[in-house]
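Forwarding these from the shared drive since the link keeps breaking.
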Amino acid sequence: MTSVVCLGIAVQDMVFAVDDLPTGGGKVLASDLVEVGGGVAANAAVTVACLGGRAALLTRLGDDRVGDAIVEELSRLGVDLTDTLRAAGHRSPLSAVLVDRSGERLVVNHADPAMPEATDWLPLDRLEGTDAVLVDPRWPDGAAALLQAAGARGIPSVLDADRPMDLARLTALATHVVFSADGLRAHAGIDDLGRALAEAAKGTRAFLAVTDGPQGVFWLDGTTVRHLPAFTIEAVDTLWGPAMCFTAP
């Protein structure tokens, strides 16, 4: 069984269905409300578990009811949270998500800025036997520690680079880096994704790719930019969460 260790953010999402995303003040009536877990690293861990792998998540949560809900759902979906930090007196990540009729979303997220930054609790000595690690950049010091430990053991590592939080340090440590389009543009300071990939490559020897929604995926093959178009679909919801868990055949 493939074993993957994920590190990063786990969030509780309050997802409101609305006709249109708001553009100003006032009140908006929602036609539906779903409470579900989310977060880059948490979603990755759930995906591994859904596909039959062994997934462990290293994340920082508060000792609050939101953290309790996150732990309950992820545990039920098969994610190992043995080494998750529950920081006393701190608040767990929480988001309000508005999804309109076209499937587009607006996310308002709060993550406790006073959450402990120390990495000494991470079980880095237990990486032996792990097939891969994945990190997001929401906790840069933790991500760097796990990437360095994986590199020292020859374990492949993936950085899900969705926003420019200390990305220069993290891209240099990972073996594979997959950017969001917005994350890559902000990191490289270049709008054209092909040129932005080439610029990002100057700071790392990792495999580099970028996802661009309905445009598909672009990646670097040496110095050549390759492209794989996305399947044409009618978008229902651009938010993915653990409730979307599926069972592989």
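-- next protein --
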Amino acid sequence: MFPASAPMEVAGGDGEEGGGASGPALGLVQDLTSLNKHVFNQAGVELGEYGSLILQKSLQALATQTDARSLRFWGKISGTNKDYYICEVFEAKNLGEDTRPEGCEARGTGVNEYAYFVANEAQGPWTALPDLEPMDLEASRGIKVCFSGNLERDIATNPFYFRKEKHFLRAQISRIHHATKLVPAGRYKITEREEKSE
């Protein structure tokens, strides 16, 4: 998972960018070209100057399409046939009808706080992953399988998984997201009350 950075405004209107007078800001998008130069390269991750620029433009188009409050490049997962570029979206308004079954956390809360979009190439097209259901999260802990890059693939594994790769991918993204929080030293402080309760 890649760290967040200072967001960049995406302006609406006549295709102009940068929060000018052409229209109201539609969302906040990371500055991937700066991240690629100062963070990704130092971590050994290579998007390339052209690749980061293409991905930046693709995310800006997705921000306009979803009318999201903010979005960021979450990371990349390798597949046997194709890779997944993953985008994390906060408060997207154009996700279609909410058809989750009972027992699932509502959009914008818990494990469904963010919506996730994936693409096989940096320039898209982007596909929304389904909301996470408890059964997918539970199953993802007990099976091991390689991603293929095909969201509609049936997963053949033991124990049997009755859902598609898109459901398994969404569950693994949530598990990675919640298990890899990076907190800078000194950001949070433990109070005396918390120390005594432990």
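Confidence is low (pLDDT under 50) at residues 1-25. The longest strand covers residues 70-77.

- D.
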